[in-house]
Write a sequence for this structure.
């Protein structure tokens, strides 16, 4: 099975890769493939067309560079960082 790199800012955008396997790695869903030198490499599955198109992404028709799920994850991460920073400031005072 081949997958295409679809991430708009990836230098391999449009390149087709032969899928070796797909698994959870580094806490995310990744596709694994062999590069031109035979080395096993990986990309986040969301950066490829391995899954059917996301309805929201299709509806955006190129007008949005972010998916709602990714923005939600970012909001949670920023909240966690703020919470840690706030906790450290309390201990310093």
């Amino acid at each position: 099975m081949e997958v295409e790199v679809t991430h708009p800012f990836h230098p391999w955008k449009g390149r087709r890769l032969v899928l070796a396997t797909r698994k959870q790695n580094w806490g995310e869903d990744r596709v694994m493939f062999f590069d031109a030198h035979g080395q096993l490499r990986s990309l986040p599955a969301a950066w490829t067309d391995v899954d059917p198109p996301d309805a929201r992404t299709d509806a955006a028709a190129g007008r949005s560079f972010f998916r709602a799920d990714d923005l939600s994850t970012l909001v949670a991460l920023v909240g966690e960082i703020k919470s840690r920073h706030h906790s450290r400031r309390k201990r310093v005072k």
Q: What stands out?
A: The beta strands are 2-4, 16-25, 28-34, 40-44. Residues 53-93 form one domain. The first strand starts at residue 2 and ends at 4. Helices lie at 55-60, 68-92.
